[in-house]
Design goal:
With about 400 residues, the chain is of the alpha+beta class. It has two domains: about 5-60 and about 260-385, no CATH class; about 65-250, no CATH class. About 50% of the residues lie in helices and about 20% in strands. It has ten helices and 14 strands. It has helices spanning about 5-20, 25-60, 160-165, 205-210, 230-240, 250-295, 295-305, 310-345, 355-370, 385, and strands spanning about 65-70, 80, 90-95, 95, 100-110, 120-130, 140-145, 155-160, 170-175, 180-190, 200-205, 215, 220-225, 245-250. The strands form three sheets. A six-stranded mixed barrel has the order 5-6-11-8-10-9. Strands 2-12 form a two-stranded antiparallel sheet. The longest helix is centred in the last third of the chain and has 43 residues, at about 250-295. The protein starts with a helix and ends with a helix.
Length: about 400
Amino acid sequence: MPDPRLLNRTMFWRIVRRMLAANRSRLLVLLLALGAGAAITAALLNLQVDAKRRLTTEFRAFGANIVIAPRDVAGAVSRTLEESAHRQVPSDLEGQQVSVLSILYVAADVSVSDSRNPVHIVVAGEQGDLSAEIFDKKQANEVPALSTFADKPACWAGVRVADRLHVRPPTVLTLRSDGREEACRLDYVRSTGGPEDDQILVPLDLAQRLAALPGRISVLQIAAPGTPAAIEAYIANLQKRLPDADVRPIRQFTEAEGKIYNRISGLLTATVVLVLVLTALCVMAGMTNAAMERKNDVGLMKAIGGATRRVMRIFLAEAAVLGLIGGVLGAAAGILLSIWLGQGVFGVAARPRLIVYPVSVVLTIIVAIAGALPLRRLASIRPASVFRGEA
């Protein structure tokens, strides 16, 4: 003997299929509304999730967002840090690589080879990851040259320094400070639009010899990726590791990044909510029309013994199926839409986030079921009234 529960379940879904196929024009309109809502929701959610990584990438293009400097001491003559402080900096933050750059600044007289007309210039000795330099790497312009003085250490010059010295690579520069002298080969002239244009960049050990400060540095610059909260926690950790140093964030980077992300996130969230509300209203309008058309069907179901709760389940199942189909198709289109929008907004295509797809589908199903609320009016229908033509 067949299981009654299995027969009931089979009959339940057969009725749902018949209802879906009863009015295909209305079905198409509801699917379009749900699909469009799911597409926009998925696109905006994917952009919102991807915005944090994109903003972090954009702001890291400007270099360091944390600086470690010697702590201010009254009457200090030489304010430098131990070079070993570099090794105290954690190399990753939330699984992402942290860039660290050690710098020693030296005031020196620079001339071309043995020229007697030196120019007083700041020489920056650097060691580490140059991505932690503070300027917009996208706007930097470097003019390379072939190295023809292989016996000399390489150095770079800012564009204004090169103009003052009237030099272009390749050439040899002589650096002098307090009777000490070093030489380097000029390999690059770069333009950053910042103070680096007035400096010469040399290897750290060369600057230490020139300043007679072995094992010392002026500052550590750190480019740490992550949210403002994660960076604050990272700074607190650095302060514990380096109690004798002054660890401080570059506020205009970290605060601007946080504010921009919060505004973008808030705007996208509000837009998603608005889209879902509008989608629910569209579904509600379609379901209201369906409720008016199905009074006779509901009256017949109740007359042959169908419970009100079971009848309502049929209509809610219809709405859920519409939401599932519209969500699956719309969310897929929305992910592709977000890639195009990311290219237009950030200049780089947004990376598809897998979590966005199921979330968008579930939200669409919820909206479809919420839009079926007008069908509650069917619960009050009395079979006798329907058959007499009063309902």
